[in-house]
Design goal:
With about 425 residues, this protein is an alpha/beta fold. Helices cover about 20% and strands about 30% of the residues. The strands form 10 sheets. A 6-stranded mixed sheet has the order 8-5-7-6-11-10, with no helix packed on it. Strands 19-16-20-25-24-21 form a 6-stranded mixed sheet, sandwiched between helices. α3 (about 210-220) runs parallel beside α6. The protein is elongated and about 95 Å long. Bound molecules: adenosine monophosphate and magnesium ion. Adenosine monophosphate binds near residues 190 and 259. Magnesium ion binds near residues 189, 190, 254, 255 and 320.
Length: about 425
């Protein structure tokens, strides 16, 4: 059986993955200690257990005043006490002509509508003479301005970063319910590929794709499951693909081009796989494959205790050239992994910079070329890293982003704004 030829534009291929990802279901949930939950995907809604801030909070050191008392400057106010951040800060309501000395983070007393830093003050005993208020504005965060008690502060589907962990801490959560990380099988193929601890023969190549993929899979929020290297031999490839289908997603690399020994699609077709695309008009990474396979129908016994496991497993066949593998993972495999991990979908985002030196290329493909983004606050620019093509891992390692070239451009002059995909 042969696989159909379905070559899509970059946008259509990406949309296809996003559509399927939006229907993917995340797995089981687990409860983790707050710190261990960082990097995991939240599986429960988190609400504020009280107003944030719980009291009107002064945002600076100064004097809590009634602004009406400062209409005419200089003004002399009676300082009736000091309020600092801390427990048991009681203050009586302020009357006209009165002020409190107040510290950052302290509760603003009733009656005050402003906290001012003052200049030219003379403070004698219990009064302050205000010649000029240096800070204008209120300098008070009203009670509940950041979140109201019982309101939702974190949605399920959030990949927990340091701010989310801090927010959970601030509402008293010492444990969080998260999704169990999906398992993603990595299957590298090729007769020339040898394990990294073997000494390669003169025409053998060390397996590096398994490692870039393992890192990208972890960064995307999943757990890599590394399979042995598959030779370009249908029977063994078949066996290892079936083994890979025990995981929640299967990512293969190599063997998807048009060559005589590129057997991955053929073996997948023999397993009655459904193909959504077998190529994308991109460089690098043109032969990328995305599809789904019925892992029960492939003659494999169901995983023990895995009755809840969906029988249809998604797979990606990524081109073997190492930079192609990394780029196609980023563009296509990542959103599927994030969905399986329970993350809310998010679009691919680009930044923009000025091109440092002109680019000439051919039209027809959307290109994602290794580049270096540098510059200053006011002037960021990017330039291509010289490379030997999509096998050049060293060039990719020197880069920190990809310059994105739309398929209708064959020339981009220096100084033009260009899209950048950050890494
Ligand atoms: P393929 O996609 O199988 O035609 O492979 C394209 C190129 O990528 C060939 O030069 C392969 O040797 C190389 N390649 C394939 N798989 C790997 C791998 N796992 N690690 C490093 N290079 C690889
Ligand atoms: Mg190969």
């Amino acid at each position: 059986m042969t696989a159909p030829s379905l070559i899509l534009s970059f946008e259509d291929a990406r949309r296809s993955v996003e559509d399927h990802a939006s229907r993917a279901t995340p797995g089981a949930k687990e409860t983790l200690d707050l710190l261990s939950a960082a990097g995991h995907v939240l599986a429960e809604p988190i609400s504020a257990d009280r107003d944030i801030p719980p009291f009107p909070r002064s945002t600076r050191d100064g004097y809590a005043v009634r602004s009406a008392d400062l209409k005419n400057i200089p003004a002399k106010l009676r300082v009736i006490g000091e309020i600092k951040a801390g427990p048991n800060q009681h203050s009586s309501p302020m009357n006209s002509g009165e002020a409190y000395s107040i510290m950052t983070g302290a509760p603003v007393p009733l009656g005050a509508d402003s906290v001012v830093m003052v200049e030219y003050t003379s403070q004698q005993n219990d009064s302050v003479e205000i010649a000029r208020a240096v800070t204008l504005g209120e300098n008070i965060v009203p009670q509940a301005a950041e979140a109201r008690r019982n309101s939702l502060v974190l949605n399920p589907g959030t990949r927990l970063n340091e701010a989310d962990i801090a927010l959970a801490a601030s509402v008293g959560k010492s444990q969080l319910q998260v999704f169990v990380r999906p398992r993603v099988a990595v299957l590298t193929t090729g007769d020339e590929i040898v394990p990294i601890d073997a000494s390669p023969g003169p025409t053998q190549i060390r397996n590096s794709n398994t490692y870039s993929l393992a890192v990208q899979i972890q960064q995307a929020g999943a757990e890599p499951v590394l399979l042995p290297i598959a030779p370009d031999q249908p029977h063994r490839l078949h066996q290892l693909i079936e083994e890979g289908l025990h995981s929640d997603l299967l990512i293969m690399t190599g063997g998807v081009s048009m060559g005589r020994y590129d057997l991955v699609e053929q073996v997948l077709a023999d397993l009655q796989a459904e193909f959504f695309f077998t190529g994308a008009k991109i460089q690098p990474g043109r032969p990328v494959v995305f599809g789904r396979i019925n892992s029960c129908g492939s003659g494999r016994p169901a995983r023990s205790g895995a009755s809840a496991q969906p029988p249809n497993k998604y797979f990606f066949g990524l081109p073997g050239n190492p930079v192609s593998t990394m780029v196609t993972f980023e563009l296509f495999a990542k959103p599927m992994i994030e969905a399986l991990a329970g993350m809310s979908p998010r679009p691919l985002t680009f930044t923009h910079a000025r091109l440092k030196s002109e680019i000439r290329t051919k039209t027809g493909l959307t290109r994602f070329l290794p580049a270096i983004l540098s510059g200053t606050f006011a002037d960021s620019h990017a330039e291509l890293v010289p490379w030997q093509g999509s096998g050049d891992i060293a060039a990719r390692s020197r880069s920190n982003c990809y310059i994105v070239i739309p398929p209708d451009r064959d020339h981009i002059p220096a100084g033009d704004w260009i899209a950048i995909l950050l890494r």
